[in-house]
């Protein structure tokens, strides 16, 4: 048929780009994510110029506001087996800030419209946590809400994770949240009008040491007691699920067929669009610069676009939370830690579950589009906000991945990126009131698994915020006070 | 399609396309060998199963990907033929020529919104998810595991130059004269860029002007840069060199980097701009000059700028016809070939390949010409990626409506150690690119001289 293509790799047409404009996406990073242009084999080489022209001609943005999306390494599809030859020193900490994320909060992308002078609730952070909370507040009749996001929607960890959702956790609280989240994900398309492509292909955890195997076995009992059908398998049992696996050094595996993967991005669009339709303001490219505090309460949130007077502030800024809290004089124990990730060329489906070697922090799954998406934590990664990419990661990941799945040796990596885990001392979140500043509510510290918890956490948080007699234990068990009281809630099923 | 007399005699070999023998010449790219054999449909597209054939010939699009010797998604434009090579088309059922999934293209003339389609419709939603998973993806797993790979190689030079086009070569010549050591990385098998493979104009400098690369410098061919990284030792270019023994990963540390990576062919949206037979201008020139294959007998050309008319001369000089030249931005120059006009409302016609091209002359009525290829010659999109990874700023060039790297007159950017030259700054003539390369090289030599130890 008569289509005019902008991005032939992903079959994105001129009309698709215009549809994204109509949905309010006019910056290159958002158009890329909404239409999928530039995410294929060529990574935007032949199409970004065409999209720049469309933005310019439609006057969707002034020329100074038209910026390219971040060009990712590798710049040419490169086989995992070749990347694996890059040298690295495991004793040294990784460095590296390539590519620079220059457009996260570009001045030219900021809205000219004024912010509301006051709002009942201001949510700092337009990731999955903040947006899911905004929507759940709407469901409870509270629409006087403003969500402030420093970059574009999806600029933070919500747009950078691997999309895994699992019930295999180490504490009853986390298991309950994960189960409820997966339930909500199943009805997300019906509730929000946007597909999130949940695929319950299971999670297959591999243990290469006795210690980790024991942990999986102990957790299996906990899972079964809470209605999660986790099984412990041998290496041969794991190979029955994924025949291509070598299961090198694997001593045991844990398998829950009800875990799965989702496509993370539409969650944010779904929540943001639904909340916006009901009156919530979602303000992107808006940076919180400080707070006006008096009488032990936050009175105003100050931003680079003006101040907002408010009754309640929710801090849901993920890895940026400590930085924002410090502006209110609050010290959070969270630390950001970079986690790198990459995606290969798309292949026809062959890999059902998300596979993770819990000992090394390696994980990988096949996305709905067919790419192998995976990452691996680096024990030497220093604390700090860093969204750069390294060749060291690609090499470590390629070696670990092809050790377990050698048939991927000649599969090509298309792009790599990084996000920041928001790490707490006990690997559990921080939820609830702030000592000394009771109208600042914490909603952070999810240590790389906030995405899969958010639908359920937001539901309970909105109830807790709006019901006078709600004493949900989640908001005392995981409050900030616990660190001062030495009441840690250790979670032992963190990947990486 | 016609073979042109090959500059050097080469051996006749054969490859196999889905059981069919394709005769070719040693040194051919797989893509050019297939085009010479009259094969134009290389694959079906990922979503609408539209027919696809080569478009850029430089590994910067995905049109020519095929399964080669059991490996998925191979750039056939950048892969040399070997005797007995097995080539298969991807993403088509039962065949690329007659793919039943093309129905998706016709059923959804306005496109297919995967975000909202069937969202929340019981049953339909689940069925769609299953169908989508099986339609998604491009290519099957490789047949075999990777062979043992060559060890990586680490190099250190005062100046690393990315790209051996006119800008990079002029910079290399300048550094040679100034006695500054350098290394040039080039992805093609020969240096020269558009001077060797493009449609050269009368004002372009001859390639021979750059032939001298002194003992101060070295040139690594068949080397594709994959990124600019930092590590504990400093800044380096990561690259993959294709050797006779397989690919080798290179790390090239340098004090200064000169990014002269030119531009990517820009997609120009018009109806059916993706069907087989629609080529970027430089793809046509590359097919003629590098591969010795004329991809069609009659062409329509569309675009703007001097290269558009140079390409027309190149095509005609090799015995094919140019039916019309449609300039989309300016009136044709006075010395333009006949049938040059300013026009719009472009459309390529044809089911599995170009059969015609229509357009509307300014203040005129729609016209259609018969042709079997369309050449698109619009300003290239500057290849800003490497410079940007090094911290250079990128801005929209309003004149060309493409992004370009921001730099001062000497090519210095905001990125530490990063200079740029040539089309990365916005498309320019080959002579201008060479000038900018020479100037950037002199500036780099000055800086290195100031810090010492570079020579």
Topology:
The complex is a heterodimer of chains A (496) and B (455).
Chain A: E1 5-7, E2 12-13, H1 14-22, H2 28-35, H3 48-58, E3 78-79, H4 80-83, E4 118-124, H5 128-139, E5 145-148, E6 164-165, H6 172-186, H7 188-192, E7 203-207, H8 210-225, E8 231-233, H9 235-241, E9 252-256, E10 260-261, H10 265-277, E11 281-283, E12 288-294, E13 297-303, E14 306-315, H11 321-326, E15 335-344, E16 354-357, E17 362-366, E18 372-376, H12 391-404, E19 412-423, E20 430-434, E21 437-444, H13 450-466, H14 474-477, H15 481-485
Parallel strand pairs in A: 4-5, 4-14, 5-11, 7-16, 14-21
Antiparallel strand pairs in A: 1-2, 3-19, 6-10, 7-9, 8-9, 12-13, 13-14, 15-18, 15-19, 16-17, 17-18, 20-21
Helix pairs in contact in A: 5-10, 5-13, 6-13
Chain B: E1 12-17, E2 20-25, H1 30-36, E3 43-44, E4 51-52, E5 65-68, E6 71-75, E7 86-88, H2 103-107, H3 124-135, E8 153-162, H4 166-178, E9 182-185, H5 194-197, E10 217-220, E11 223-231, E12 234-243, E13 246-259, E14 263-264, E15 278-280, H6 281-289, E16 298-303, H7 306-317, E17 321-327, E18 340-349, E19 356-361, E20 367-370, E21 373-377, E22 381-382, H8 385-389, E23 394-397, E24 402-405, E25 418-420, H9 430-451
Parallel strand pairs in B: 1-7, 8-9, 8-13, 9-10, 13-25, 15-21, 16-17, 16-21, 17-18
Antiparallel strand pairs in B: 1-2, 3-4, 5-6, 5-7, 11-12, 12-13, 14-22, 18-19, 19-20, 23-24
Notes on the structure:
Chain A has 496 residues and is an alpha+beta fold. Chain A has 15 helices and 21 strands. Chain B has nine helices and 25 strands. In chain B, strands 8, 9, 10, 11, 12, 13 and 25 form a seven-stranded mixed sheet that branches. In chain B, strand 9, helix 5 and strand 10 form a beta-alpha-beta unit. Chain B folds into three domains: 124 residues, 2Fe-2S iron-sulphur cluster binding domain, sarcosine oxidase, alpha subunit, N-terminal domain (Ubiquitin-like (UB roll)); 182 residues, FAD/NAD(P)-binding domain; 100 residues, FAD/NAD(P)-binding domain (3-Layer(bba) Sandwich), CATH 3.50.50.60. Chain B is of the alpha/beta class and 455 residues long. Chains A and B meet through strand 1, helix 1, helix 3, strand 3 and helix 4 of A and strand 6, helix 3, strand 11, strand 13 and helix 8 of B.
